[in-house]
Structure formats: structure tokens, C-alpha cells
User: Fold these one by one.
Assistant:
Number 1:
Amino acid sequence: MKIGLRGGHSPYCKGAMGILDEQAEVRKIYTELKPMLEAKGHAVIDCNSNANNVNAELAEGTNKANANNCDVYYTLHMNASKDGSGNGVECWMYDASNEDMNQIADQICKNFKSKGYYNRGKKFNAGYHDLRESAMPAMIIETMFCDNAGDAGRYGSLTAKGIAQLIAEGIDKKAVSGATDVSKPRPENSIVPGAGGLKELGKVDIYSAGFTDRWWPEVKNATDWVGAGDGLPLRYLGFRVTKGSIKVRVYTEASGWLPYIIFGQSYNTNDLDNGVVGDGSPIQAIEMEYLTPAGYKYKYVKYCVSDINNTSFYPTQVDNQRGGGQDGYAGVIGVAADKLIAEIV
Ligand SMILES: [Zn+2]
């Protein structure tokens, strides 16, 4: 099998920073994994990028996989939850249609679980560049949370080589040996609604701020909409929540989907790169996911937008859920959004 393989991000355009530096560590995992896959008889195409911006490094990866006619494309990442409460492994695919890929994703997650990582399981998203722009079946392996002490500790003892082994065996649909389930995982955002033993989080307020040609006063929950509201596109957005955190990304006219930013109890309008979402061009779509603190019953964000051509709002989106009339984000790609409403329920 010809495998396109890539450690996420670039040394000149870093990924998540926690206890571990995501980009630096996944590149180490890549370096260990490549010869392991080759020893199993696979050809491995180096799809890494050293580009200096997100669009360029993402495009370089999928372009290399596509140009080499790879049979499958894997990218290695580490997650982050900002407050350090998220943990575990998850594998993202475009959709659930490829049975082989489903089995590989399950096996990789099980192999991580056998070493104490929480198994967050398979997830699907048709919007992620790696999954959308690859001409072959693709998988984003979010190996662990780089800002979680437990995950980082397990990484420290397993090392990049140990992690690479879990993935290499998973790709061949093989379990790893010496499995011991040692951890007491904290399922941060995979909590089953109403599951026993989970506490009620209580009311969570979200405050949203929007920039059109100026910053507008922040709006609490769904008491009002964010923005100027009269045909002026939203260009930047900032959010803060009173508990937990919220993961947000926007699709802009200039750049398409921008990287996720996780907001806790603050945003920063003085830091247009990392303190808010947006790039200054009109925002067309927004994806939001509420990250419930560990040990509490799952809550989610309900949000909707209106576009510059209409006064009415599109249907409400819940987190990044798909199906049932939801497409995983609010807004319409190709049309600027001018109003947003969000609340945590
Ligand atoms: Zn990443």
C-alpha cells in the first residue's frame, strides 16, 4: 500500500502548544512511524510541509499525497482543550463509508486505549482540508491532548516510538501486545448525555463580540445578535464562556476555514491572530463546539447566523453536529454573514 504520511503543521506555522509542542512531537512520531510502515511492506510518501502559513502547509500535504497517487493519507496531530481537561485519542474521517478505514480507526483508538489513553473513537467531518482535499481515503489521527497532564505523561513514558507503534499496528489492523488499561480516563467532551454519576454544570453564559468596521459591545447569550446587523459583514469574532471552553473556527472570504481557536473565560481583541477568530475579510460560516468540563453532564452551543442579503436567520446549528438538517456549521459558504446569535444549553 502506498501511504501518504504527514506530521501536522510546520515548524514555521506551529499547531497547538500545551505541555507538549504538537508540531515538534508529531514530527518525531512521523520519523519513527515511517520506517515501521516500510518494514511492513508499505511505501511511505513524505507529505510533511515546512511552509509558513496554514493554507500553504495544508495544501502542500494533500498536493503531495495526490501527486503521488497514494492509496491512503494519514496526518498526525495532537489535540488541545486549553484548560487541560480534554484527553484521549480520536480519528477523523471524511465520512463513515469506507469500512477498511473504519476498522483501522477503531484499531488505532483501541491500541491507544490499551496504553491508558481515553478512546474518543471515530469522528467525521467533510470540512477538514486533509479529508476534503485528498483524492484518497484519509484520516486525521488526533493522538492525544498536548495540554493534558495525563496524556503528556503517558507520551513521556511511551516516547514517540511507542506512539508510532500503536499507529503502525493499527494501520495493519493489529492489536499491540502487552496491553494494560491503566488509566482512569476523564471523558471530557464525549460524555453521554444523562450518563450516571455526572454532575449538573448549571447555567453557562456565553459572551460574543463581533467586529465589522469596529468592535460592537459584547452580547450575553441570545439576548441580542452580534454585529452591526445591516449588511455589514462580520470580520472578527471573540467569545468567552463562564465555565468550560468553546472551540471555534470561521470560514472567511480570503482564507476558507481558519484554524480553531479555543476560548475559555476571555478573548483578546488586541491579538487578531490568536485572540479572536477571523482574518479581516468577511466571515461566511462559523463552526462552534462547547467543551464541557470533565465530570459534568454534556452541554452544547446553539448558534445561528444571518447573511448580508437577508434579515432572517438560517436554521440553528448545534455544536458541530451533522445530519438532521445540520451541516456542521452555521452560515453559507460564499455569502458573508452579518449577524450571529449563540447560547449554551
Ligand atoms: Zn494539529
Note: The longest strand covers residues 283-291.
Number 2:
Amino acid sequence: MDDPGDPWVPPTHILVREPTDASYVIPSWIEVGNRVIGVVATHLWAIDGVYELVSPELRRTTPTLQAIEPFVDHCGVSVPAVEARVRRALPRFTATLEVGWADLTIAAVRAETVSPTPWHRVDQSCAADSLTDYDAAIARTWGCNMCGRDPRTEFTPRFEAHRTGMRIDARIDLDITVAVCPSCHEILHQPLAPTASELMYGLRPPCPSCAARHADVVAVNHSDAPLPIGVTASSAPPDEVPDFHCGNCGHEW
Ligand SMILES: [Zn+2]
Ligand SMILES: [Zn+2]
Ligand SMILES: [Zn+2]
């Protein structure tokens, strides 16, 4: 480091937060100008950004994290994908990376923002599931359980089974699987992914009465086909059936 031709590289630290935490707790020994790789403890672990600790702004008393290059978007970057590129495990706790390792890790984060590793190469969580007959029957009638993409077109995607983590009864159920199109499946496995409920309801309109995003599709169920999650049946005459039922306040529209 005494060689004047050797540029000073700021120390780079790993900070970890839970998905439910709004921000990182910054230890006092991390100094302004240091770099931070923000790691979120999702089930497969994700990086939500590369930051520099900057001086307190007006009206603030503590330094804050400011996102720097390479910028990570809302999807996050997969920790296992970064580890596969660097060929070394990243700490899952507050730690300081040695300079060469830090540079390699940040280069791998940059590569993942440009060309993300396909999710199924680092995430085996749905690999063991093929579509059940039940889910396949639903998909034939209702399409993708997330976006509703219609199966009755000539060039329909092949539906895939996604394990939602939801159980109707925790004592007796395995995780519920749903049939999803490959595009929705990719979203559900982004490093910082929405839950199946967040994606499905997020694609539907908010309730005009309470603004909640919990619109169940109301359908006249005149077949024996089972209903997917997010769809409720109505026995009202077809011309009186509303489009949606709010699962939050009960409003129908
Ligand atoms: Zn879909
Ligand atoms: Zn899946
Ligand atoms: Zn409502």
C-alpha cells in the first residue's frame, strides 16, 4: 500500500439484513468512503445493492448508504450465482472482504446485472415438482395461475409447477403447487421475488372501495374443473356475476 502507484481501494464489507428489515444496521467501525455489499437473507440469499457509506446529510446525524456502480435493480442479484462466478462462498454475516476477493465479487455482481444466470441453474426449489393432474386440469381451463395467460391459443407455453410455500392446513398439507407460465415462473424466482400472492394480486386491479390488492376473480363454475387459487365461484345468474371480489373488504365490482 506504500507504493504511490498503487491506487487506494476502499475496504469492502458485507452487511446482512432480513427481508422484513427496511434498512441495514451499520456498525460504527465502518467508515465513510467504505464500500458495502448489501445481502438480504431470503431463502436463497440475494444482493440488493453495492453501496458507499457517505457523510450525514442535512438533518441526519449518521452516515448513510448510497447506491453506487454496479447498480442492482429491484430484482436483486443471486448470491449463489455470484458465488458460482467467483468460485468462493460469500459470508452470510457482517464481514470485511480482502481486496482481491471484493473486486472479484463486485465484478460478478456487475456481470449478474448485465446477464443474470438463469434461475433454475442456482435454484432447485421447484425442480422436483412436475405438474400434478389437478394443476394441469386447472391450467387447461384457467391458464397461468398468476397472469391468466390463455391456454387455448395455438402457441401456448408449457405450464410449470411452482411451489408456493402456502398451505391450507399446516398439519396435513404439503406446499401448494400452482401451474404457471415460464415468464411468471421466472419472476417468482428472481433473487428478490414477490410471493405468488403478491404477483397474482399485483397483476389485478386494486379494490375501488378499500384500495387493497386482493381481487379474486369471480367465475361461474359450470364445469367440474377445480378452481385455482385467486378464483371464487358464484352461483348468481351469469349477467349478475361481478368481475372481482375483494378478499380484504368483501366489495364486489
Ligand atoms: Zn403467467
Ligand atoms: Zn417455482
Ligand atoms: Zn376492498
Note: The longest helix spans residues 99-114.
